[in-house]
Fold this sequence. Notes:
Layout: H1 2-20, E1 27-32, E2 38-43, E3 101-106, E4 111-114, E5 120-125, E6 132-133, E7 138-143, E8 148-153, E9 159-162, E10 166-169, E11 180-185, E12 190-191, E13 208-211
Parallel strand pairs: 4-13
Antiparallel strand pairs: 1-2, 3-5, 5-10, 6-12, 7-8, 7-11, 9-10, 11-13
Amino acid sequence: MIQGNFFKLCVPYLLFVSILHANDCPKWFPMPALDGLVVVIPIYDESITAPDMDCDELIDAVDPDIDGDGVVNASDVFPTDAYEWADSDGDGVGDNADKPRIAVLSPANGASNVPAQSTLSVKYERFDTSLGKIAGKKVQIFLENGTVHTDFDVNVAQVNITTGDTVHINPNAHLVYGKKHYVHIDAGAFKDSTGEENDGIQTNHRWSFTVQSGSGPCGCDDFDNCDIDASLQ
């Protein structure tokens, strides 16, 4: 019974200390429980008041790696950011956050009632220079049943780049009325002069859309082979 009373009296006090103390890193102390087992209570060590960002029990003033990311402060461009440590292009944004990524898809992912004669486009952001097409990489469009609608190398006239960061894709054949389409793009299909490359789209949930219902004749332009079966294009 004495042990139980000790536990009831001491736990609130310890938690009260932890709330008042300035250091945010918990220190763990064993405490006896009512059934004789040991529970672990987080409190804060009153003797440590200096900042310790990574809670490694080395205060920041003497810690060679303040943010605990594995890169010493002297070599870390962002010594207080555990998620960044380099800035290869010197733009003030860490490499991890500065990687190229998709900004806008058109049609948007999940869109419906998309015109059958749509040109698809992908706008990228955070490339350092204008993009170029890399031969051997592919763009593919699949129908919902797994049938390939479009499959061609990106280094063709049906794929062009404007404003240095927006890729336009002419599907080469009208999209299929009333059907869901999935677009895949190889990683590294587009690169800038520094070697940065696009992330791939290789899953059906990343870029899909449904074409409007209806029917219509083929258009007549330089790239439109919609009167030819897609498997023969």
